[in-house]
């Protein structure tokens, strides 16, 4: 005989002698997870809440950024510095909205889209998101392989296979819980930051020219291609999806008051992590502008040439710092990209495959590029331009969902936030249309 489970009697509806009496709430008096964390002190609580934005931030300093920033600085000096700054400010807003969606709904963006959009549209979004993920993975994989090649002289194809092993090792940390993975990625981000801090202190870009570069402007139509590439390399579609997955369920909240407190922590997380990423990107371009914006080096178009120029102009330590930062960037961002691809597939179409199997599959296009002998830096820049076209396709549903009260409740976007987010989507879309038209004419 099958026994039917009945729902528990609500604590305030028990009846005795015809009169309702209040029974104690089983959870009453037990501190929530957030309260237990806050009891350890404000500083320890803040440090414990940092992490999701640092994982996302690694994608904002991936090898694609190395390629676009080095080329931008070499060809146009400090002119495109304002593009880097604007892209990172846009990234802060976008990543906070993604994190906010995960905290409030306990679902990631692809899951929310699947629940509320028509099925054919959901499948279409999954297809384009996978294309964006492939472009991302090519850039990140090539960057790590280049790093190994520059550091140890490993040929590019074997270096690509070694990169796969490194990525497998980092992804394995996910089986130990979210915190070891976050700490490993944050440590690699710290290596990238330390590398370019050394380059900045050693080379000393012009402060006056750097400030001039923050004034919006372009240097001919050719600079637009790199400007869009910089945006594509900085605002990454796959981490728009990923950030909501990193925050959903990470800190259980009992009510909207606790969610509001968690959102305050997440704002700090985003500001610090994306601020560091922004400083790294601006340092890359400024260093390249100081060293390579000369008649002899302005045509520099590969990361390998940049590495050699560092060694020739500054010394072996500067070249070493550049290569180590590149390797850390490629290894960390490649693992994050694979994780994001898993979120995209599971969220949009509710299909899950082991993450290590996915890593093995997504290695193939990058291995093919290396085997074909293509110029890795040119492939990196092209992949970033492709990524730029995917930004609105991720950003539009994010703004739509976070602007809906039936999804977000009391945490729905303020009108100004919504207007700023729509403005970012329109601006990026307009740049992409203009770029496409200029290439076809």
CATH homologous superfamily? Amino acid/polyamine transporter I
Query: H/E element string?
Result: EEHHHHHHHHHHHHHHHHHHH
Strands of the biggest beta sheet: in what spatial order? 1-2
Share of helix among residues?
Answer: over 70%
Assign the CATH class. Mainly Alpha
Low-confidence stretches: 1-26
Strand content: under 5%
Alpha-beta classification: mainly alpha
Computed over alpha carbons, the radius of gyration is 24 Å
- Number of separate structural domains: 1
CATH architecture assignment: Up-down Bundle
Number of strands: 2
Give the termini separation: 76 Å
What does the overall shape look like?
globular
Main beta sheet, described?
2 strands, antiparallel
CATH fold-level topology: Amino acid/polyamine transporter I
């Amino acid at each position: 005989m099958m026994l039917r489970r009945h729902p528990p009697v609500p604590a305030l509806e028990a009846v005795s002698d015809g009169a309702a009496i209040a029974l104690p709430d089983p959870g009453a008096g037990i501190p929530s997870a957030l309260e237990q964390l806050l009891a350890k002190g404000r500083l320890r609580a803040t440090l414990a809440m940092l992490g999701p934005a640092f994982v996302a931030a690694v994608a904002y300093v991936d090898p694609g950024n190395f390629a676009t920033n080095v080329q931008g600085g070499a060809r146009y000096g400090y002119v495109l510095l304002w593009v880097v700054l604007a892209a990172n400010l846009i990234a802060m807003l976008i990543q906070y909205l993604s994190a906010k969606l995960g905290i409030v709904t306990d679902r990631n963006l692809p899951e929310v889209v699947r629940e509320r959009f028509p099925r054919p549209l959901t499948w279409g979004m999954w297809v384009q998101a996978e294309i964006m993920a492939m472009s991302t993975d090519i850039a990140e994989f090539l960057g790590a392989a280049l790093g190994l090649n520059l550091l140890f002289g490993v040929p590019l194809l074997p270096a690509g296979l070694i990169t796969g092993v490194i990525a497998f090792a980092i992804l394995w940390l996910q089986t130990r819980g979210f915190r070891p993975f976050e700490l490993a990625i944050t440590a690699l981000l710290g290596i990238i930051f330390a590398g370019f801090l050394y380059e900045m202190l050693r080379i000393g870009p012009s402060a006056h020219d750097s400030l001039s570069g923050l004034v919006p402007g372009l240097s001919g139509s050719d600079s637009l291609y790199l400007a869009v590439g910089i945006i594509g390399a900085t605002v990454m579609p796959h981490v728009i999806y990923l950030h909501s997955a990193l925050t959903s369920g990470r800190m259980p909240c009992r009510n909207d008051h606790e969610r509001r407190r968690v959102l305050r922590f997440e704002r700090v997380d985003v500001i610090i992590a994306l601020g560091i990423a922004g400083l790294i990107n601006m340092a890359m371009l400024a260093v390249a502008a100081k060293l390579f914006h000369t008649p002899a080096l302005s045509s520099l178009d590969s990361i390998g040439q940049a590495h050699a120029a560092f060694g020739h102009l500054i010394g072996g330590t500067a070249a070493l710092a550049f290569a180590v930062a590149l390797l850390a960037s490629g290894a960390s961002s490649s693992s994050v990209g694979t994780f994001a691809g898993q979120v995209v597939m599971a969220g949009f179409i509710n299909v899950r495959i082991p993450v290590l199997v996915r890593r093995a599959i997504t290695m193939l296009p990058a291995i093919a590029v290396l085997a074909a002998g293509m110029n890795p830096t040119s492939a990196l820049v092209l992949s970033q331009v492709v990524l730029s076209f995917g930004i609105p396709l991720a950003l539009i549903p994010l703004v739509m969902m976070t602007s809906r009260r039936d999804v977000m409740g009391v945490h729905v976007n303020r009108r100004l936030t919504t207007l700023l987010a729509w403005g970012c989507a329109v601006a990026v879309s307009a740049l992409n249309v203009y770029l496409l038209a200029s290439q076809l004419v």
